[in-house]
Amino acid sequence: MYKVGITGGIGSGKTTVCKVFEVLGIPVFYADTEAKNIMIGDAVLIDGIKSAFGNESYFADGKLNNKHIAGIVFNNETELAKLNALVHPAVFRAFDAWEAVVNPNVPYTLKEAALLFESGSYKMCDTTILVTAPTELRLNRVIERDNVTAEQVKARMDKQFSDVEKEKLADHFVINDEQHGIIAQVLALHQQFLSMSNG
Ligand SMILES: CC(C)(COP(=O)(O)OP(=O)(O)OC[C@H]1O[C@@H](n2cnc3c(N)ncnc32)[C@H](O)[C@@H]1O)[C@@H](O)C(=O)NCCC(=O)NCCS
Ligand SMILES: Nc1ncnc2c1ncn2[C@@H]1O[C@H](COP(=O)(O)OP(=O)(O)OP(=O)(O)O)[C@@H](O)[C@H]1O
Description:
Its EC number is 2.7.1.24. By secondary structure, the chain is α/β, with parallel strands linked by helices.
């Protein structure tokens, strides 16, 4: 099945863009959401996370203490590498399992991942989309959405490839600023992917 990877820096709007593809009937695998599901469902991973970041990584009811983990990893490269090494292989496996049961009649699938390029998982996709927006707009979107500080968002931006680095690796682009509408851009890409997946 033809596989499209989609990524973009924090707050670029990749999830919002994926929702438009979903309206067109395209199944989307959300790697960030899946990562969170696995982190509360996989006993081996839970143990690994507790030994790396402490028992307070989980609340008594089993929910993930995102703030606790984020506070450690986004301020320390080594700790972030540790978390990525624990979580990313499990997400790759979850994607393979998802793909094996997806409706075989769909023309293509989308894999949404914040770290598509950083993790190397773009190499498993047939083509890629990069969603971009100016840094200031991304910052403001995330501050509003997550009720966090600019410094917290910048700490995550610093741990991701810059848009310049990502642009070198991406095949297609969606500009999600205040001047460009995303719907027309998605429709145009959809037409291209339909012809690619048929050919
Ligand atoms: C540290 C955690 C618990 C913080 O949870 P929180 O709810 O605050 O953030 P959430 O997961 O919704 O991510 C929001 C955004 O933060 C950025 N981000 C998340 N993880 C990472 C990472 N490992 N490196 C760089 N940026 C990241 C992305 O832009 C992402 O879209 C969580 O992000 C996590 O478990 N990350 C590790 C898994 C991962 O790498 N996920 C991303 C790709 S699979
Ligand atoms: N074109 C737009 N117009 C208005 N609001 C938007 C637009 N695109 C995204 N947003 C808003 O900006 C915020 C960030 O968008 P979204 O969650 O899609 O980004 P993301 O790239 O998936 O972020 P993250 O990397 O944090 O997961 C959301 O609250 C979303 O509703």
